[in-house]
Each structure stands twice: as structure tokens, then as C-alpha cells.
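Feature request, filed as a ticket because there's no other form

It would be nice if the structure record came with a short human-readable summary line next to the C-alpha cells. Right now we just get the raw output. Example of a typical job, pasted below so the devs can see what we mean:
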Amino acid sequence: MNPFFERDIRLTRRQFFGKAASGVGMLALGSLLSQEGFAADLQHLGQKGAHGLPGLPHFPPKAKRVVVLWQGGAPSQVDLFDHKPGLTAHRLEELPASLRAGTRLSTMTSSQGKYPILPAIKPFKQYGKSGMWMSEMLPHIGGIADDICLVRSMNTDAVNHAPGVTFFLTGSQIPGRPSMGAWAAYGLGSMTDELPAFVVMTSADEKKTCGQLFFDYYWGSGFIPSMYQGVQFRSEGDPVLYLTNPPGMSSDLRRGVLKDIEELDQQRFAQYGDPEIETRISQYELAFKMQTSVPELTDISKEPESVLSMYGPDVKKKGTYAHNCLLARRLLERGVRFVQLMHSGWDQHGNLDTQLALQCRDTDQPSAALVQDLKQRGLLDDTVVLWCGEFGRTVFAQGDVSKPNAHGRDHFGACYSLWVAGGGFKPGTVHGETDDFSYKIVKDPVGVHDMQATILRQLGIDHERLTYRYQGRDFRLTDVSGQVVKGIVSDF
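Raw output as currently delivered:
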């Protein structure tokens, strides 16, 4: 008897109805395959991620790759980037109620009895030929002032961490959408067969003061095939899980096993057309290649001492922000499309007077070094380096200002700052302006979707045309809004 028929005879009642349901699903799949968008997706999957979607990039790109230096917890723009010398004269005065009216605050301070103004805790100074004002706590980033574009007029609807991070990285405050890196990998594909198109690394301040978690949906693929999600590199053990061969298994034996699995998966894909099956095929193949490429990538022993010293004293400590910044450069130069470094420690509600300086010390030098390293290797021109957090901090104090380590600043989404370098962004420029209290934007506001649209545009992508149909709707990173910010890119 044909073994396939024998299998059918042994079907249970539940299995029978399950198979019948999948048959109906296949009819629906056949209908979908006739649609141009879905057919393009399967064609893309057939290329195993080596190339992007047909027709992309939409226009000549200014950048080939992106690295996001995520500062989790929300850096204080009042203390670091948004110079407001006039606040000194108003120290501990009440922030006018008329100014606060209509501004969304978190529940931690929305019912405060008082809102005392707290000026920057350290002096600002001017850096570079551009004369850009930044805190003296950021001397190394100040040293690259003429290479960065500082945006002081960012704003977001979110006032809590997880929704804020999710919004910036996926375009929605609700989890489940594809992340920015996944969209880039989906649309443009990979530039290497040896490493993932999208890599993520996480780190935290030494004392773990922030307490914020990094959820995997911050680099997930949402409803697009999971082959485009970020691959997380770990700081302990194998950088990627299951990278080494199990005990007793040689590389040749593992290669043979993977080949057999691939043949079975190909048969299953031909039968059902499930994109996740094709994802498994491509990921098995990539994992095998990474057994060689990843150990070489993570071995920094051959880096010149001049380069190591540029990233600071923590560069040789695995899992630190400095170490991850160096690995980011090594990933980018090896063809990785999108690198996302996520570092926590910026949530200074009650320890602003001590922790902010420590956090700047740990991240300032490596951040600047990455820009300098890319520049001296000729990679900065076509690499976008984005330094940002989920929102900013309030100009008024939270807690008891009269006591050390008992006060800080709360979350604030109405205005905050970030900077971006390379990839066609205007160097040595400041975009946007807030009022005298760093509380409301008075010139050139930039929303989250605007920044997303601009980054995609530098990659050669029209953010309105990179879409994915899901549950009857065409989704995109920028949802239903977003405009390219012409004032911060060089060719407008």
C-alpha cells in the first residue's frame, strides 16, 4: 500500500477535520497567490533573503545600512542637548500652569502638587566649528559635532517606556507590527550570505538602575515572514543559540542532516506554500554559514590598539555598550543591513544627580568612536547612525530636590532630542527649536513617523510604497502619516 494512503487511513477524527480545514485554507492561498503582492512575497522568499523586493529601492539610495544606538529609558534633553541658559534664573520656581495646560504627563507626575523648574545639572559648552551646544558630560559626542545632525524638536504621543520604544521602532504603540529593521530587511534584502540582514545586541548600565526590559518584539517581524526579524547576539556563551555543533556531531554530519531537513521542508513548502517553511530553510542554511562567520566576527583580538582605545576602557568586556559598538562596526563592514544596539540605564527618576553622569561616561565615548571609525573607513557616507531614546524628560523636578539621590525627571513626550550622522543627513546642523522651558516645540516639529519616513527615504525607500497586506489592510512602518524631514537631509 502507498504509505501516504496508509497514513490517511490512520487519521483520527480530529486530524481529518484539521486536514479538511487546511484544504479550505489552500483554496484561499491559491486565491492570494493570484494577487501581485503575495506572489511577490513568495518570489522574494525563494531568493532566501539575498535580494530585496522587485522594484526596490524606489530611487537611488543615500545609505545602504543603518545602525540604531538605542538609549533605553529616555535621555534628558534638558541636561544634554537642549541648551536653556535662562532656566538658571528660575531654579525651583513653579512651572507656569498655563504652560503645562494640555500637555500629556505620566501618572507619576500628572498629579504632583508642585512643578519646580530644574535647570541642567551640568554646564553646556559649544563644540566644533558649528558651535553646537551640548552638555560638558558629552565631550566625545561634542567632538563629532560637525558630523552629526542634532534634532531638538522630536515629539511622540507615548509617555511610558514600552509603548514609546514600540512606537519608535515599529510605528505603533501596540506590539505586533514589524520593526524598522525587519522592514529594511524585507524590502532591501541582505548584502551578505554569511550573516543575518538584521542583528540586535543589548546592554545595560553596570548597576542595572533602569529596570526596563528589552522585549523581542522591539526587533520582531510582526506579521511579515519571520526570516526578517532581528537575530540577537548574546554576550555570554555562543553569540547565537545552537551555533556550535552538539557533542559527537561533526560539521560534515550536521551539513548532511541539514540537507535532509531542507529536502523535506522543500516538499512541504511545495505542498502548502507556507512562508514560514521557507524561513526555516533559509535560516538553517544561514546558521550553518554563521558557524564560520560569527566566531571570526566576534574575535576582536586583531583590532589595532588605536581602534580599541578609541572605543574606551570597556571595549574588551563582552556585553558592554562599548564592546557592542565595536561589534556593530564589524557587522556593518561585513554587509549587515541593519544593526540595533539597545542600552538601558537612562530612566533617572530619583538618581539624576549621580546616574546621568555615569551613563554619559559609559556611552559617550563608544557612540562617538563608532561614528569616527565608520568615517575613517569610508563607511559613514552610506551608513545612517541614529542615537535616540523613546522620549525626553520633564524640565520640572520629580522627588525631593533638596536631597541627593532623591530626585530626577519624569517621562516627557512633547519635545525631546536625538542625533543622526552619515547616510546623507546634514552634518554640523541643528534642526528644530523648543520654547525657553524645553517644554513645547516652537519651530520645525518632527514626529516619530516623520523620522521613520526620512530614514527609509535615505535607504531609497518611499515609506508610502513599502507595504504588506495583512488581514485585508496594507500596513506600512509609518502607519497612515509621516513626512520626510527635508531640513535634515542634504539633497533637498
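Something like this underneath would help us a lot:
The chain has 14 helices and 19 strands.
The radius of gyration is 25 Å.
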